[in-house]
Amino acid sequence: MLSKRDSTSTAFHSILTKVIVNGEVQPKDTIQREYIITKMTNLEVPKHTLNLDPRQQKSPLRSGATPSPNLPEAKHTHIHPRGSDGNENAHLRFIGTATTVLEWQGIRILTDPNFLHAGDHVHLGPGVQGTRQTNPAIDLEDLPNVDVVLLSHYHADHFDQKVEAELRRDLPIVTTPHAKECLQDKKSDDEKFTAVHDLDFWESATMNISSSGASASVPAVKVTGMPGKHVPPGPLSVANDLLSAVPPTNGWMLELGYSTDSAFNCGYRIYISGDTLLVDDLKQIPEKYTNADKPIDLMLVHLGGTTIPSPKVPLLMVTMDAQQGVKLMQLVKPDVTVPIHYDDYDVFLSPLEDFKKAVQEAGLESGVVYLDRGEGYRFGVKGE
Q: What residue stretches are annotated with the Metallo-beta-lactamase domain (predicted)?
């Protein structure tokens, strides 16, 4: 991987080649624009670097009980809609809500852990409560070793009270700056999480995976914060910023691949939308990926049309409904889409059937895999 100095030098050279044309320096606004673009796309120095060792098997819970060696067997395992190419080496398991487990190279990444059961309640903001309608595919106590938690935002249907009480305090968590403040800075010394790594939009972290074999390249996961907006732009968004009623949220871009001393080679790219609406900021994603020869292989799209303050008083939608989900597919053009976060709480008013219908009407059904809770999806990360 490039040092910070080498990366800066590369970025400076890139700027010069863009702002000096035919020997003439371009206007100041051109220089400023190119500097910003180059800083966002050329500097590969991560904000955080995590070193993960799959040989260290620890319970994700504070109890320290010996963890299960593996996830329970999937109810059914799906593959690419066009069939298998025989190179599947990674696995995604859908647990429920926005909770998934990603397994590759011996590590496990747990997203938005929510393990409450049907009838349990979560607090979603001032005067806003949700009731769970379903059970997770597995219980929190049955989790095997988890290497990293990827938390899109600090909301109880993504990080519930049971999870917050029982997770091991030194378990690495990658999340938003707001969630880090809640999990670390605002907690007492004996309750604070000690390995929280915050990422804002377009900031990245690299997770290097220890390998027993000698190789010039190291398996790694690069995670980058993607734009997201839980509240629609306008006066309500301004009011929410003042009241902090609905927390800020991230999407994520996960790039699975291999690092050498000089480069990172992505072998599979996963976009997780997070609890966002279809806002203009998302247009930056295809600009930086799909249209920049960095195709998105898999999208996990958070749906449900979450409506607050309650199903009986649906005043404000704060996550994408079926129509917005299809428009996001058309915007970022993933190879495969897996919908999640669609029927687990009573505040979700846009059911999966609405999304299926909208997908079919748009002619996109060949690029969607539907997972029930407890089912999995296998895919292949390209080699070193």
A: 108-342
